[in-house]
């Protein structure tokens, strides 16, 4: 394709040697400055409003911009002539002031001081959360207007092209090699419909500690559910492929090329969701053009197979046709920086000649203002303070900090059916609570509730899971080490209690207690201890046949059994069994015990009494923890940082000051900690 180069007259104007443009340029400038292309009237500003709200660069085209518009217009005429079957290009849409602007100049590389948005993941997440979608109408046509990133962030509503413009500007500001992509995508991506996608939190959520038997049971249930829904999934796929506009729906996303910021492979970012994709993902059906703040490139490659075979070498004019031929590019800038560094290093040793690049028309500076994102924007990023995303058999709700009085910031609800009517599980994430609660999961399918806490919790409690059984309640708890007893986990059910230890000096690592069956109407605390099994790690300082591996107290049978560790050359371990004598009863016919065995039995009987006391203390601690948690839930308080800037937090802090007189014990009452 023939490309328009800069003329001698244009070069003189650019160097400041010519003060006036000719009549044609003046006429074009007046036409463009007063042009209001048909677009939603509630979005475009009147000229008097634009004069007040926006700087001159938004309202008037500079001489360089006028020449760029002329180049783009000439390019588009040639393109339409050579490729009449292809759709028009998005080159010069109208901005918020009704003025035509070249799309590359709408990008404004904006650095940031916030570490949260210094990486692409943070930028993409912020844009997806902060903006709400205005779908293209009709969905097969390019938009006629494209607002600046500053206006888009102020309105908090955007088309997919404006989403991509904001995200690309942020990525360019932190030195990613990023491009806006105009192309075609599947219906669900264009309409931000994630109802057929798996919720990403379901893959990354922290799993609770469960026994192997429970794990196998849940695995079996998942397999059965997969078989039951296989036919429905097939119907979903058929429905997805039934879109009559498939391959025609216009979409805009972001391309990130490798080579900068340690990016190893090219990838796409869908700005509507903030998710990344490989460049051969089948959600993307074709590319018409891409652009950054240096140039605009038209794709000359075949996209009948989607984006699978597309090559992203922007310097290859055979596959990417530039609007500004020979203009400076991101790659050339990087090479120039390397050359300058090399010249500085070789200065004084070798006379390195500087090769001058042929003078061409480079992209003028962006007309848009810098993107300024404040801390309060990052904290309160969801429009209206909350955002709801519907996934396949799941609903994800995100809330601004301190919007809820109990510190709730995320809620994930999963359903058994595709219509999302039968709840399976509700998982909630909290922040800044005085009881250190971070997560709570209510699983209605398996009838349990699990809570996870930050470090600093009383009793050193990290995790608590309680399950309703037909015979009572099963409690499972994790603790942070080191505790005075080195306990790390406890599982208590109506007839059994298991405790697990770490790094104890006596090498004890587990204790299993069996209780008597509870009578109907009796107090569960009155259950008698029937059996205790303690397990010990190997103590290398003792011979194996003197090192106890397992100690069993059979209280109901008045017996104590010892099982020793294996010797390396033995196939069976040594065992000893003791029968405790009845108190006050001595059989004169019985042979007296050997002295050291008698002493061992006496020591074991003392240990048994000590273990029973420890078991009672463990049961009491469980009761204390449950009572303490119940009291905490009645009066949840939030801890505010002095750096907190969100509107919700400020309003809630003011409300707290008013609630000091008089204080209440309501669960939703919050006081400054």
Explain the overall architecture.
The chain is an alpha+beta fold. Among the domains are: 8-186 and 243-337, no CATH class; 435-580 and 597-634, no CATH class. The protein is 29% helix and 22% strand. It is built from 17 helices and 24 strands. The strands form three sheets. The protein has a 15-stranded antiparallel beta sheet with strand order 10-11-12-13-14-15-16-17-18-19-20-21-22-23-24, covered by helices on one side. The chain has a seven-stranded antiparallel beta sheet with strand order 6-5-4-3-7-8-9. The longest helix is centred in the last third of the chain and has 40 residues, at 595-634. It is elongated. Mean pLDDT is 82; it is low at 2-42, 205-213 and 660-673.
Number of helices: 17
Q: Characterize the overall form.
A: elongated
Q: Overall mean pLDDT score?
A: 82
Q: Characterize the biggest β-sheet.
A: 15 strands, antiparallel
Strand content: 15-25%
User: Termini, distance in Å?
Assistant: 69 Å
- Indicate the percent of residues in helices: 25-40%
The value of Rg in angstroms is: 36 Å
Strand order of the largest sheet: 10-11-12-13-14-15-16-17-18-19-20-21-22-23-24
Helix-strand category? alpha+beta
What is the β-strand count? 24
User: What are the low-pLDDT stretches, counting only 5+ consecutive residues below 50?
Assistant: 2-42, 205-213, 660-673
